Amino acid sequence: MTSGVLEVENLTVQFGAVRALADVAFRVQPGTIHSVIGPNGAGKSSLLNVLSGVYRPQQGSVRWGGRELTGLRPDQITRLGVGRCFQNLSRRTDQTVLDSIMLGRHALMRHAVLAHGFALPVARREERVHRERVAEIAEFVDLSRLLHVPVAELSYGHQKKVDLARALASEPRLLLLDEPAAGMSSGEKRQITQLVRSVVASLGTTVLLVEHDMEMVMGLSDRITVLNFGRLISEGTPDEIQEDPAVVDAYLGQPAEDRR
Question: What phi and psi values does residue 184 have, to the nearest 5 degrees?
C-alpha cells in the first residue's frame, strides 16, 4: 500500500478573537510516523479536526497525495484514505467488538446496508466479505478472541485497541491518532506502541500522531512538529527537538505531570 505526501500550508483556524492555528505549515512523508506535540491549548486537536474535515479553516490548504482536502466532508475524506482514532472512547454498551469494528467498514460498503431490509444475495455476499476483513483486522490488533464480547465489558486498554481497529477497518493510507496512549498503564503503552509500529511496517500506512507521552513520541517518531499557542515553533527529528531551546522552554521543560 502506498501513500501520498500530506501537505499542510498556511493553516489558520480562528474562533472569534481566538486563533487556534496561525499560519501552520509542514509536510508528512509517506510511510513515516510524524508526531505533533505541544502544551494543552497549542492547537493539536484543531489541527486534527481540520485534517479530518470536522473544521474548515479560515485560511490555508491541506493536500493529501496531491488531492485538496480542505472543504470536504469527513466521510469524503475517509473515502480518500484518511482514518482517525479519537482520544475519547465512544462506547455503546450493547455493541460487540465485531459490530464496533464493522462500523469502520461502512464507508467502503456498497450494498451491505440492504442486507438487513431486503436480504439481497449481493448484499449478503458483500457483508460476508467485510466481516472476513474485520476478522483479519481483529487478529492484527490481537482481538480475535474477543470479537463477540460487548465492548463495554473490555478493559480500557482493549477498548483503545477496538478504536484503533475501527479506524484501520476503513483501510486508511493516512491514520490520524489522537493520544492513543492516554490513560494507559505502562504495559498497555508498550503494546499500543508496538501496534503503531506494525501499522506502518506491515500495512505501509502513514501515521500522524498527537500524543503527550514523550517517551512514546521520541521512540516512535521519524519527525516531530511542535505547536505552541497555535503557532509552529519547531520541527525536526526527535534528537533535534529535544535539543531545541524553544521547545524545552515551551513544553519539554515542564514537569512531566503538567504535560499530561
Answer: -90, 155
Question: Using CA atoms, how far apart are residues 177 and 15, in angstroms rounded to an integer?
Answer: 24
Question: What is the fold, at CATH topology level, of the domain defined by 1-81+172-260?
Answer: Rossmann fold (3.40.50)
Strand partners, 159: none
Asked which of 7-16, 127-136, 208-217, 237-246 is least confident by mean pLDDT, the reply is 127-136
DSSP assignments along 215-249, one per residue = HHHHHH-SEEEEEETTEEEEEE-HHHHHH-HHHII
| Lowest-confidence segment of 120-124, 182-186, 227-231 by average pLDDT | 120-124
For the chain, give every residue range classified as CATH 3.40.50.300.
1-81+172-260
Interhelix angle 156-168/121-140, rounded to 10 degrees, is 130
Which residues, 6+ apart, have CB-to-CB distance to 47 below 8 Å?
8, 11, 21, 24, 36, 210, 227
As given in the structure block, the three cell numbers for residue 94 are: 450493547
Return the sign of the alpha-carbon dihedral for residues 133, 146, 104, 83: negative
- Cα distance between residue 248 and residue 178, in whole Å: 22
Q: In what order do the strands lie in the sheet with 231-236?
A: 82-85, 174-178, 206-210, 33-37, 223-228, 231-236
Q: State what percent of residues in the chain have pLDDT above 90.
A: 69
| 3-state DSSP assignment of residue 109 | coil
- Which of 243, 206, 213 has the alpha carbon at shortest distance from 1? 206
**pLDDT, greater one: 204 or 86:** 204
Q: Tell me which residue of 54, 3, 48 sits closest to 24, measured CA to CA.
A: 48
Q: Which residue has the cell 491514520?
A: 175
